[in-house]
Amino acid sequence: MILVYLEGHNYEYEVRELIKLFFFGKEIKFIKDEKACNEYNILIKSCLRKAKDDYFSLTEIFKNGKIVSSSSIESINNIYVGKDDLNKKIKTGIKQSIYEAISKIAELEAPWGILTGVRPVKIVHDLMDKQIKEEGIYDILKNEYKLYPDRARLIIDVAKKQRSFIYPLSKDRFSLYISIPFCPTRCIYCSFPSNSLEVSKKYVDEYTEKLIYELTEIKKIMKNKNIYTVYIGGGTPTAIPTENLNKIIKSIYNLFGRENIEEITVEAGRPDTLTVEKLQMLRENYIERISINPQTMNLKTLETIGRMHTDKDIIRTFNLAREIGFSNINMDIIMGLPGEDINDVKNTLEIISELRPENLTVHTLAVKRVSKFRKTIDAYSLKDQNTINSMLELSKKYAKNMGLLPYYLYRQKQMLGNLENIGYSIEGKECIYNMLIMEERETIIALGAGGVSKIFYPNENRFERVPNVKSLKDYLLRTKEMVERKRKFIDTI
Question: What are residue 364's DSSP bridge partners?
Fold first, then answer.
């Protein structure tokens, strides 16, 4: 157990999230009396003290009752992260001293420094908006946020690539996310709203009608605004019958106009849901971008994670999509899957490099609270940070050799190795929606069970989250309420 004692401040959430990076899976408990620590626990003591017109932060770490590490930030006023807000400086200074103190003794590294949020690229966009030059941004990332140099350069490059797609910001532009929360089976690592098609098939027709109703109402609400992109995700949208998915897509076009949509993506992630008929329907509906997501090309791992298809099925389905005319295909893979080593990852990357997708999204396994994996994690062999980092480095080399460049990036809580997810693309085939949802600089209206709308207010550089209910049955009963939830916020843009 890791015990934490705070003195002079109460930034419990920020401190907890930072400590979790270094002590993966360990219980963290905040105590009110530092003397309550027994000699068998680690105690992290974080202090904030005022000194004349300034503050300083001190962190001391005790083990077996003896101090084993310490670090201090002597002047909070000297911290600069692009903002003069004192509260921001104080939080940064507290986290800096904790980071430095733990780094001296921890087995794990934190290549993303004191950043604990999932969207580090947003920080770069904020700094660019303030007209801070690239080297100045790099210095802030490395010296204040404590990023490793390669990560600092990476997110600067990603932000630079994104600017032409995201800017200029507009309150009159929006994108749509359509949730299709059905899957053939549930993968052990999955945390998305998803319902087994075998169990929930009887609800698909009703869900289709309710979704079209929500689309119709949203069209009325957004009548004076311009649509930009559409993303149909899940679940696995292609798990539902062809006629249902066709009906949903046709409704989107009838309401918003295909000619007005810059980009539309359909997640076709599971090859066991794809047929010639379904792929032809998508092409006939002018769908240009699809995802065929293997996660791994190793049969044993596919069985372990709950996939009902083989590596050969993935190759066959990919080639079929090419034959039918798809020229923008994304493939997702996951680093750190149970039982996989660097040779397994190399095998996956070798096969993918032969297929030559236009997009490759490389995820690092995250142990999500609501996933099956979280409940059974002790039954699996997981690799250490160095091994997973080596897997990521290997994926970067293969992506580069395939002519793919990083264009979006995000992190997740409980991610193995404190690492990241990176989306790669060939020039001109970047997924605009992926950039928009990660950088949160445009209104995205989410429809369907589990969808979370983000209403953007550009003049204030903020957004409001408006969630739909996650339960399939609740959504079917409360669709009108989901529309009214969004209307309340959209009317204030």
Answer: 335
